[in-house]
Amino acid sequence: METFELQMKVRDYECDIEGIVNNANYQHYFEHARHEMCIARGVSFAELVAKNIFVVVARVDIRYKRPLRSRDEFVVSTTAERDGVKMIFHQKILLLPERQVCADATITTVVTVDGKLSRAPELDKYFI
Question: Three-class SS of residue 114?
Fold first, then answer.
């Protein structure tokens, strides 16, 4: 599946007293990019919820490489793969313009249907 990219910019309030982006904000960047990728592929979270289908984060693994600072522009690249009931997102934050890796993450999600783990084959058309 092709890589989805979303360009973003650091906002002042995302930085801590050291002048760098607080580590928790990287998760926000990654999540926003995953949601935008899903929307771009036609996934409607409202429709999934109406069918009692939930994609929930089960594990987050982030490796921080270099800090982002106020007003830095960056790209979040995202790819996804299916593994049974899991959807695994591989993501990177790349500082522009050189595309230097700032953070590298693997986000593992699971799918539940009616409260039970499920492969939810209706999602295959978006992620395979």
Answer: coil
